[in-house]
From TrEMBL:
Cofactor note text: Binds 1 potassium ion per subunit.
Residue positions binding AMP: 410-414, 439
Protein name: Bifunctional NAD(P)H-hydrate repair enzyme
Source domain of life: Bacteria
Matches recorded under PANTHER family: ATP-DEPENDENT (S)-NAD(P)H-HYDRATE DEHYDRATASE, ATP-DEPENDENT (S)-NAD(P)H-HYDRATE DEHYDRATASE FAMILY MEMBER
Length: 500
């Protein structure tokens, strides 16, 4: 797992790296500029496209000057425009301006917008402001950014789009550069992983600039992002003398007469993730569907949506409740009965979350280390309305501690909150997965890992990461516009097999 950095921590890592590698800060800037330029050249190999690099006078601007020099040397047609709105400049900006001049590269400086000339370049590199941003843009900066946005050119931002905050609440009223591509240093900024970023970032790439990883990983921060190796390390190989009893028994309490599909997807995903036995607690009307679709699963029927009084709860290692369950009074009783009968961690999804939201008294019965998997609407129903995503991060961290549960806020980059206060982002997934039933599959996967004996936190990490990875692979292999839940769950065994 990789720690994510706030702007402040990024500055600390910068300082530490410079001290410990006995290098000059301008050399670190050169590395950043080189990493940016390599990524830029891969994305925009056509050297006939003219480039204008807009630079501020801080270190983001210094990066811009170094990038301009490197791209010029690589054969691009580069123009440099420096916004001298403030009397200050950083020393590495000054150092890079001297290097730029020594190469004979032409640059323009402007002190006010009125001095700006028409822009002809087809690509604009935005190196105006970076993580040093400390207030919303106003005055000349605001006018400049609005003007750049109005040009409709391809904009590539250095480290972060000018005006966008790396962390903290985003206001819809903040004006930022709208970038086609942002090439960010060392780590994605936390706000890149929240939907608020869609306003100004179409796509981002992260480049390694050689900041000290030991220092970064030792930083105390709640924010982290999952990696392939953090998942592989957690996956357990199947033991030589294993049998179905080795891999647990899961119960999926799901489905309604008209929503049997959710139960089927969840149960099949559970089975395909490797549980020894999977039983589906479903409405009696769904038995034929279950037998036809998943002959490997067993059924425990709910007549008139009531769980039989003699259900042997103790034989299950993990339970999922919610997909397609409905929110009727009978469904509420099903939830209540489950909460009263099973004290091991439970996976709550969909209608089980809606029922918890409308019956707060039931929340106290949620077993410790359970996993709740709300999407944003369910999250707000359960914990109250939020006006931005940063607030949701704070609520998620508080509620996971308070409930002693793992909360997975499902999104393009799902966010996992743990009882220890961690806030872990999942990088895998693709917009092609935005289709019905995906959540049911995820719930089945988490329950399966739980039933197999994984710790709840690990079960959540594994399921979310592999779910997204399988979706990504399916969409890229087949160049698929959409990946359906049914196709994804078929791919789970291979997706796990590739990672182990
Ligand atoms: N960290 C790393 O590891 C590395 C970082 N690198 C690069 O450094 C960048 C950060 O640079 P930076 O700290 O010099 O700040 P930057 O963003 O250029 O801003 C300059 C000044 O602008 C001002 N200002 C702020 N908000 C404003 C506003 N709304 N309107 C007007 N002015 C405003 C503010 O000055 P103040 O207001 O305090 O006087 C601020 O100091 C980072 O994004 C990356 O590109 C790489 O080179 C190498 C490794
Ligand atoms: K920038």
């Amino acid at each position: 797992m990789l720690n994510l950095l706030t702007s402040d921590q990024s500055r600390q890592a910068d300082k530490y790296t410079i001290q410990h590698l006995s290098m000059q800060s301008i050399d670190l800037m050169e590395r950043a500029a080189l990493a940016f330029s390599e990524a830029f050249i891969k994305n925009y190999p056509d050297k006939m496209r003219s480039i204008a690099v807009y630079c501020g006078t801080g270190n983001n601007g210094g990066d811009g000057l170094a990038i301009a020099r490197l791209l010029y040397r690589a054969g691009y047609r580069v123009d440099v425009k420096i916004a001298r709105f403030s009397g200050k400049s950083s020393s590495d900006f000054d150092g890079n301006l001297a290097r730029l001049m020594s190469q004979g590269i032409i640059f323009d400086e402007f002190r006010k917008i009125a001095d700006l000339r028409e822009e002809q370049a087809s690509i604009i590199i935005d190196a105006l402001l970076g993580t040093g941003l400390n207030k919303p843009l106003d005055g000349e900066w605001l006018t400049l950014v609005e003007w750049l946005n109005s040009l409709g050119r391809t904009v590539v931002s250095v480290d972060i789009p000018t005006g966008f905050k790396a962390e903290g609440p985003i206001s819809k009223h903040d004006v930022t550069v709208k970038s086609e591509l942002t090439i960010s240093f060392q780590r994605p900024k936390i706000n890149f992983l929240l939907p608020d970023s869609a306003l100004c970032i179409k796509r981002f790439e992260v480049v390694d600039i050689g900041l000290d990883e030991g220092f970064i990983q030792a930083l105390s921060t709640p924010y982290a992002i999952l990696t392939d190796s953090s998942i592989t390390r957690r996956l357990k190989k199947r033991k030589p003398f294993s049998h179905k009893g080795t891999f647990g028994h899961a119960l999926i309490v799901a489905g309604g007469i008209q929503t049997m599909g959710a139960a089927l997807l969840c149960a099949e995903a559970c089975l395909n993730t490797g549980t020894g036995l999977t039983t589906a607690s479903i409405p009696s009307e769904g038995l034929t569907a279950l037998n036809i679709r998943i002959p490997e699963a067993m059924a425990s029927l709910r007549y008139k949506n009531v769980i039989p009084a003699d259900l042997a709860w103790e034989k299950y290692n993990a339970i999922a409740i919610g997909p397609g369950l409905g929110v009727s009074d009978e469904s509420k009783l099903v939830l209540k009965q489950t909460l009263n009968s099973f004290r091991k961690p439970i996976v709550f999804d969909a209608d089980a979350i809606n029922l918890l939201a409308s019956n707060p008294d039931l929340v106290n019965l949620v077993p410790k280390l359970s996993v709740l998997t709300p999407h944003v609407k369910e999250f707000d129903r359960l914990f109250g309305e939020h006006s931005n995503w940063w607030e949701r991060l704070e609520t998620g961290m508080n509620k996971a501690k308070e409930l002693d549960c793992i909360i997975i806020l499902k999104n393009r980059y799902s966010i996992l909150f743990t009882p220890e206060g961690k806030c872990v982002f999942n990088p895998t997934g693709t917009p092609a997965m935005s289709s019905g039933g995906m959540g049911d599959v995820l719930t089945g996967m988490i329950t399966s890992f739980l039933a197999q004996g994984y710790k709840p936190e690990d079960a959540a990490y594994l399921a979310v990461f592999i779910h997204g990875k399988a979706g990504q692979e399916l969409s890229s292999q087949n160049r698929a516009y959409v990946v359906t839940a049914g196709s994804l769950l078929k791919d789970i065994p291979q997706a796990i097999g590739k990672m182990i």
